[in-house]
Design goal:
Strand content: under 5%
Radius of gyration: 21 Å
Largest sheet: none
Number of strands: 0
Number of helices: 10
Low-confidence stretches: none
Distance between the termini: 40 Å
Amino acid sequence: RNAAWSFANGGVEHGAGQAPPEDRLQLLANLASKGTDKQAYISSLERLVAYYPKKEYWNDLLRRIESKPGYNNRLALDMYRLRRATKTLDSGNDVFEMAQLALQERQAAEAKKILEEGFASGLLGKGNDAERQKRLLNLASQRAEEAPKQLATAETEARDLKDGDALVRIGMAYSGMGQHDKAIQLIQQGVALLQQDKAAKGR
């Protein structure tokens, strides 16, 4: 890391509970962006969003994380969820792709909600892709209606097979339907099974 970044980094430390000045953190990020240490820039952005969670900082940070070598594409849906939570999911293509990924992961209620938000905000329903977007919403609505019965069956099968991954996915689906208590219970059980599997393999 360059000397200027190290000097500036040392100058932003504040007491517990005190936020460093935003302009000092911006200076730190600017210096880091000019160096060769990409992690230093990401670290600077992480501090900016921690103290000043503005849309532009989140957008830059998430874009940098996605472009890091070794980024796992299996995290794409989770990354979209983070973009949605930080209000950086702001293109029709991203909304459409997130909904498709959610459907692939059997998160029909989540996909339906994402698409409905997209149509309400005006990101979807315009231009040449409008009909395709409406068809996806119809599909998501149909699957969301069928989801409660299918989830009950899938939950029974996952418990019988002691499939931790499946229980976590089913828990996420219940969360998308607004059944958060049940979702937490299933996710905790799924994680416990995954930890048991990991421990067994490590013996």
